[in-house]
Design a protein that fits this description.
single chain; about 30% strand; 6 strands; binds zinc ion; mainly beta
């Protein structure tokens, strides 16, 4: 197709001469607004909470870096007796303390009160899921994990850190504004089941 005019009508051009509101500049910086909301600002209480972003290490081609404990034939790590380096994930990673905003999705079988009235079909299983909103500069990736921390009554992580759940990221989306810049990230995560040893790494 050589003529794109149907797909991109001139009305949507960035050319100022065609802009119906040429004198209006961006009044709202979503990136800044999001960070103020989640991280707090002058006189603004943050709505975010501490979490750990577990970034998978990647080689120069972007592939995950396997841990030495991974079995050469099965390509799997032992999750029941995890090694002390990867804690059973099978790949090398680094952790950093971040702040994010979490919305708990009410998964059937979870702890949501409405689940008490919801009769499940036999054999149906589901794990709790959450949607996480992260600041633009964190740049999470699909194979990374989000690790929930035990927090005290004021919302600070207990020391030493206690990891109470790990979420694998099913979907990572960059939320972009009109100019294409990333304002924040939305990650859909599903809580990973504990190993048979009851160890969450
Ligand atoms: Zn390992």
């Amino acid at each position: 197709m050589s003529d794109w005019s149907d797909l991109f009508p001139l009305n949507y051009s960035r050319d100022n001469s065609l802009d119906p509101f040429p004198n209006i500049v961006d009044l709202v910086d979503l990136r800044r607004e999001f960070n103020n909301l989640v991280l707090g600002s002058n006189g603004e209480t943050p709505i975010g909470k501490p979490y750990i972003l577990r970034r998978m290490r990647r080689d120069s081609e972007g592939s995950l870096v396997p841990c030495i404990c991974v079995h050469p034939l099965t390509k799997e790590a032992d999750r029941d007796y995890p090694c002390s380096i990867c804690l059973g994930s099978g790949n090398l990673w680094d952790e950093e303390l971040i702040h994010l905003y979490e919305v708990v999705a009410s998964a059937p079988g979870g702890s949501n009160s409405s689940d008490n009235f919801h009769k499940m079909n036999v054999g149906t299983a589901s794990l709790p899921a959450s949607r996480f909103f992260l600041p633009y500069n964190l740049h999470p990736k699909r194979d990374d994990r989000l690790v929930e921390l035990e927090l005290d009554l004021d919302g600070n992580p207990t020391i030493p850190y206690i990891r109470i759940a790990i979420y694998e990221l099913m979907l990572v989306r960059a939320m972009r504004s009109d100019s294409g810049k990333v304002d924040f990230w939305v990650c859909s995560g599903q809580k990973m089941g504990p190993s048979t040893k009851g160890y969450v790494g």
